[in-house]
């Protein structure tokens, strides 16, 4: 690995301009690009987010001056935003944010931190060494000096740890994690992203109960959710394995109920084995974490709510889309039938909102089918089930259902009313469902054939069945039967 940053043309131009502006100030301001950009560029990875650490406290004032300087050279920039000092949100120094030549730039002063009982530190201007020591990992504590064009490694371990793929904390690990338990999750994220070996002292510190427990008491649920989501974007199985090995699952995925957590890593192992043969995405990896809560409920406002849904909405604060997606996966398992051969039967469950997208639900159904007899190793039983679901997928594709399930019905609601001389009512919805089944079973059927079938059904026993199925359901009349007058 190179120990110097090779700049792109845009980066070279940016650094030259920043150097020129900062050194001409009175007094001159030292500028360093910090953290992730340095790490990524040393690894020859693209990076467009720059954190510029300054030798003065106010990043906003500096950013405004720099942007005005760039305007004199006809260089387009974005407006300068201000992230005001707010100690309650860990924002102790005023930050200036802007976009310059396609680069997202944050300007903030070098700082040192001390902690009391929360992860919100007491902050004051600091030296480059103090700023480096406050960071989560040595590989994220590197600086690129804008003036000398050199990488600076004040922890003395950052460059070697990046080269040797080691996750190490700048300060003693227990101090690092007790100061800010979010760093535990960031350690897992970077270890999984860059395939880092986590140093033994770091592993042992995380395993200490008081260190793990601080995640729930010191870190906001939103921040936990953000880190978990990010760690699933690179090597999700490694991330889930570390969470399991470190005993973090109950602290990251906390809930009113606390079931055994073994099925989380077991389902992740199964998903890993299926990943080269089936559709797999981040939603499925997140579902493995929720597996221990399958079939469990908790009380919310006097109602039973699925624990898996609560984990997503309360412990991780993920979006409603993700929460519903996870909940639907467990519901889809009850619907997907890999033994089905009838085109309309398969097509209607593929259209079910709980099943969409069907590829994801198919994979998850295979995982859950293998799980009850999983012993940690891929065996004949697992292979048999995997083949069963592969054959089912092939059947779906052979029947050309993926494109059929989204086709519009041959007749819309208005046309159905006219054809059968009926008014809008729940009956119309039932007829449309019947038409959908007919259309799935008759992929070559024409509009004329469809109309003939509908009239035959309406004039025969089909009407009786449709009317029966369209009756409203309620507690006093559970079968939808007409009330006697």
Automatic annotation (TrEMBL):
Keyword set, alphabetical order: Nucleotide-binding, RNA-binding, Transferase
GO CC field: mitochondrion
Gene3D superfamilies in UniProt: Beta Polymerase, domain 2, cca-adding enzyme, domain 2
GO BP, sorted A to Z: tRNA 3'-terminal CCA addition
Pfam family, one: PolyA_pol_RNAbd
InterPro entries listed in its UniProt record: NT_sf, PolA_pol_head_dom, PolyA_RNA-bd
Residues of the Poly A polymerase head domain: 31-166
Domain tRNA nucleotidyltransferase/poly(A) polymerase RNA and SrmB- binding per the UniProt entry, residue ranges: 196-253
Superkingdom of this protein's organism: Eukaryota
Listed GO MF terms: ATP:3'-cytidine-cytidine-tRNA adenylyltransferase activity; CC tRNA cytidylyltransferase activity; RNA binding
Annotated stretches, region: Disordered: 464-485
Family: Belongs to the tRNA nucleotidyltransferase/poly(A) polymerase family.
PANTHER family per the UniProt record, alphabetical: CCA TRNA NUCLEOTIDYLTRANSFERASE, MITOCHONDRIAL, TRNA-NUCLEOTIDYLTRANSFERASE
Protein name: tRNA adenylyltransferase
Organism: Kwoniella dendrophila CBS 6074
């Amino acid at each position: 690995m190179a120990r110097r940053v090779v700049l792109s043309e845009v980066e070279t131009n940016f650094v030259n301009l920043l150097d020129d502006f900062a050194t001409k100030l009175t007094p001159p301001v030292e500028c360093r690009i910090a953290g992730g950009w340095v790490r990524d560029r040393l690894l020859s990875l693209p990076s467009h987010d720059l954190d510029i650490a300054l030798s003065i406290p106010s990043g906003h004032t500096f950013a405004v001056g720099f942007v005005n300087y760039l305007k004199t050279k006809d260089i387009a920039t974005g407006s300068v935003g201000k992230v005001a000092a707010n100690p309650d949100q860990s924002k102790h120094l005023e930050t200036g944010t802007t976009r310059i030549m396609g680069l997202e730039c944050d300007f903030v002063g070098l700082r040192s931190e001390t902690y009391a009982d929360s992860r919100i530190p007491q902050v004051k201007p600091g030296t480059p060494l103090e700023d480096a020591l406050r960071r989560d990992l040595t590989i994220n504590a590197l600086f690129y000096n804008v003036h000398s064009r050199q990488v600076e490694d004040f922890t003395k371990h950052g460059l070697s740890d990046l080269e040797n793929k080691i996750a190490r904390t700048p300060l003693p690990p227990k101090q690092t994690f007790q100061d800010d338990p979010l760093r535990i999750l960031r350690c897992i994220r970077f270890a999984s992203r860059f395939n880092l070996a986590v140093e033994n002292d770091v592993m042992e510190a995380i395993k200490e109960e008081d260190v793990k427990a601080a995640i729930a008491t010191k870190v906001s649920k939103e921040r936990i959710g953000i880190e978990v989501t990010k760690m699933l974007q690179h090597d999700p199985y490694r991330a889930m394995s570390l969470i399991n090995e470190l005993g973090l699952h109950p602290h990251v995925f906390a809930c009113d109920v606390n079931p055994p957590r073994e099925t989380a890593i077991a389902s992740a192992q199964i998903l890993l084995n299926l990943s080269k043969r089936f559709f797999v995405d981040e939603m499925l990896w997140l579902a493995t974490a929720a597996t221990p809560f399958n079939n469990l409920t908790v009380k919310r406002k006097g109602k039973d709510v699925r624990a898996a849904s609560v984990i997503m909405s309360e412990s991780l604060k993920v979006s409603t889309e993700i929460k519903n997606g996870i909940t639907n996966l467990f519901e889809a398992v009850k619907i997907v039938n890999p033994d089905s051969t009838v085109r309309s039967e398969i097509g209607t469950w593929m259209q079910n909102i709980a099943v969409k997208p069907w590829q994801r639900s198919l994979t998850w159904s295979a995982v859950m089918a293998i799980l009850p007899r999983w012993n940690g190793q891929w065996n004949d039983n697992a292979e048999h089930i995997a083949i069963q679901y592969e054959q089912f997928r092939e059947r779906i594709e052979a029947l050309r259902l993926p494109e059929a399930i989204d086709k519009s019905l041959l007749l819309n609601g208005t046309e159905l009313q006219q054809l059968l001389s009926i008014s809008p009512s729940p009956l119309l919805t039932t007829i449309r469902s019947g038409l959908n089944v007919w259309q799935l079973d008759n992929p070559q059927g024409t509009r004329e054939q469809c109309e003939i079938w509908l009239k035959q059904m309406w004039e025969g026993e089909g009407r009786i069945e449709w009317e029966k199925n369209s009756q409203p359901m309620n507690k006093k009349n559970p079968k939808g039967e007409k009330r006697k007058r």
